[in-house]
Design a protein that fits this description.
single chain; alpha+beta; Glutaredoxin; Glutathione S-transferase Yfyf (Class Pi), Chain A, domain 2
Amino acid sequence: MLTIYGVYRSRALRNIWLLEEMGEPFHHVPVIQNFRAGGAAGVMHSRSPEFLAISPNGGIPAMQDGALVLSESLAINLHIARRYGGPLAAADLAEEGLIAQWTLFGATEIEPRSIQILYNRVQLPPEQRSEAKVAEAIAALRTPLAALDAALATGFLVGNRFTVADINVAEVVRYVLPAPEVLEAAPRVKAWLAACHARPAWKKIMARREAEPAL
């Protein structure tokens, strides 16, 4: 049984979502970001020695599967899909390539821009937020979201079915939601993201996330 280190209020959510979709049991070790821990006693955080022994760079999430340790959330999801197989994983080499393509597309073309919307509309203290950065991110997202919108003509990214590619990309597109106008020009993306978030596994993990202490 593999182990996921991280909290629901982190990128570990991506890994837990995939495991819940696949119905695979896993061991969960809550590890909170150091900046959120605030020195709270008895809380394992990203700079705790016991966590650094697993993930020396202190990145959350981390995964341990036997002797293998991974610390990038999207790479973890690709490993989980290969590890357990099934309909969420690649059915052949072509699908393997497409899943990798869309995962890297999300990581390079979407997330660096979408995270700026989340930071500057939600996560940063109000005095540190910048609407100029939000506007810049929205402008930079127009082309990649148009490409994603075209790719979703069949409703999914790979193989006409919900796969790990949808999870990986949906998780970086989700960060644009504090600026809902972004998706108005990408109606397929908007409908696809809503369908992803209507899935029982997503609702289950989000209920857990809401119940998790925010510290």
